[in-house]
Amino acid sequence: MTKSTIAIVTDSTAYLPKALAAEYGVHIVPNVVNWGDKSYRDGVDIGAVEFFERLKVDPVAPTTSVASLGEMREVYTAAAASAEAVLGIHLSAKLSNTFKVAQEAAALLPDHKITVLDSETTSMGRGFILLGAARAAAAGQSLEQVVQTARAAIPHTGVVLTLETLKYLQRGGRIGAAQAFVGGVLDLKPLLEVRDGMIHPLERVRSRKKATSRLVEIVCERLAGKAKVRLAALHAAAEAEAKELLQTARDKLGGAVVETVLTDVSPTVATHTGPGTIGLAYCDGF
Fold first, then answer.
1. 164 and 145 together in one domain
2. Would the N or C end of the chain have less CB density within 10 A of its end CB?
3. Distance of CA 127 to the CA centre of its chain
4. Residue 123 dihedral angles phi and psi, to the nearest 5°
5. At 29, which CATH number?
6. What mean pLDDT, rounded, does the chain reach?
7. Within 10 A of 244 (CB to CB), how many other CB atoms are there?
8. At what angle do helices 69-82 and 98-107 cross, to 10 degrees?
9. Among 123, 154, 185, where does a domain finish?
10. Domain housing 206
11. For residue 1, is it within any domain?
12. So what's the pLDDT on residue 165?
């Protein structure tokens, strides 16, 4: 684990690969999947594989909730005990109350130097912001410098994804502006993006194959001419497709790509997007 005087905290919706989280000592607050009469901590009591296996056969639909204030405080307390200062970077406040609970937890620890940021994004869009901050901290930068690194990365990140269906987003109340796509031709596949902390519609295409092809086109168009591109493919029980998506995008962008990551969509995100979700997250210039 890379040692630093600044500890980084996030929540499980980033689904930062375990090896990277361990390398940089990132403290992760698990959000919660509620299923039937039981609750499961995301990434602790239930992982992506178990989640999707159960989703195939369980007639009861899962729901999600934010980690309790007590658990959030516990993680921040542990982080503060391990470093001189703490930076929390959390899921978009427009998608969840996680950021608000993190602020409340930090306020309960007035003797510690803690800053909490709204990443305005999710999944590996936030993951790259986290990695930038963690690497800056490991290089010996001050808390103020690390916070600035994270803030500066936010407008350089993006997440574009395609879903098998919009029913999960609609059922979970996270559909936002993508509601405009509901009620269209049933076999159309939606392309969505996370922008300004919300889920927005991009396009609809007529097949899964065209959706993944167009997804790569959109991301590569946005990153054309950019330097130091970081790419992540994220998926909900669609690993083979995600690997192919990542390789295709990497081939198109060539030498600009300096880092690639393949990761699952966390159960608390997949509850709202559904199985078959596949996407690309990116960050440029950092």
1. no
2. N
3. 6
4. 45, -140
5. 3.40.50.10170
6. 91
7. 15
8. 60
9. 154
10. 156-284
11. no
12. 75
Distances (CA, A) of 162 to 152, 176, 216, 268: 27, 15, 11, 17
- Sequence letter at residue 183: G
Summarised one tens digit per residue, pLDDT across range 197-246 is 998 989 989 899 999 999 999 999 999 999 899 999 999 999 999 999 99
- Model pLDDT for residues 58-71, shown as the tens digit of each residue: 999 899 999 999 99
Number of other residues whose CB lies within 10 A of the CB of residue 285: 13
Give the CA angle between residues 188, 189, 193 to the nearest 5°: 135
Note whether 139 and 279 are same-domain residues. no
Radius of gyration in angstroms for the set of CA atoms belonging to the chain, rounded to a whole number: 18
Residue type, 217: E
Q: What are phi and psi of 15, to 5 degrees?
A: 45, 45
Q: Look-up: residue for tokens 């998926």? A: 235
Which residue reads 């999960």 in tokens? 168
Record the tokens describing residue 42, joined without a space: 């995301």
What local confidence, expressed as pLDDT, does residue 185 receive?
Answer: 45
Q: Which residue has tokens 């703490």?
A: 86
What is the SS3 assignment for 191? strand
Q: Is the dihedral of CA 58, 59, 64, 67 positive or negative?
A: negative
